[in-house]
Amino acid sequence: MIQSVDRALRVLAVLQGARRRSLGEIATALGLAPSTVHGIVRTLLAHGMVVQERDTGLYRLGPATLRLGNVYLDNLELRAHAQPWIDDLAERTGCAVRVAVPLSDDVVVVACAPTPAEVGIVVPAHACALGKVLLAHHACVLPERPRRMTGETRLVPDLGPVRRTGLATEVEEAVLGECGLAAPVATADEVCGAVGLVVPAGDWPVPASTVDALRAAARAVSRELGAPDWPPHHADDAATA
Predict the structure, then answer these.
(1) pTM for the complete prediction?
(2) Looking at domain 76-240, what is its CATH homologous superfamily?
């Protein structure tokens, strides 16, 4: 690991979580000397990855991060294949639909319907149906110290049913008033993401027709990405066969 690159990425992660911070706050969060962080931040400033507010002197993420994010989305094969299917799924079910990919112990929404407003949302994997799908297939990892998003959050989700059925659920674990249902999306080699429904708590549980529609969409996207079967198999299946 190249130390300077690692530290620069950690600076960006700190700003992602806090939106804006002083140099001292960044240094404290990273456990580094302010002089060390200053050099890293100045380099990130020069490349537009970080900007400094003139009125407050605080630092926040810069416009270059958005450009990188847009390039990533434009080149994401999962997103391109999923969008037509989730548009149809949203229309058929009346629910908001999200597609997410793993990011360590979080999931990141990379496509949604009927509007794109939620693209870029990051949710702890253990607290949402999308994340439970990815945890069950070892695409995400549980954090060392899972945090509660609501009073309903299960810090250690039961993944057995997810592996058996290909479906994950959550009831107001990430956001009060919202429930979720999700299914895996796979390539020929791995589970690469998940597609899920966001359901108002008053409409939970969803009818069987909605579950079937979600399964069909996840299966169709996986087929386009080269998956030989659905739900996808993983190591735990072979171990228990």
Answers:
(1) 0.81
(2) GAF domain (3.30.450.40)
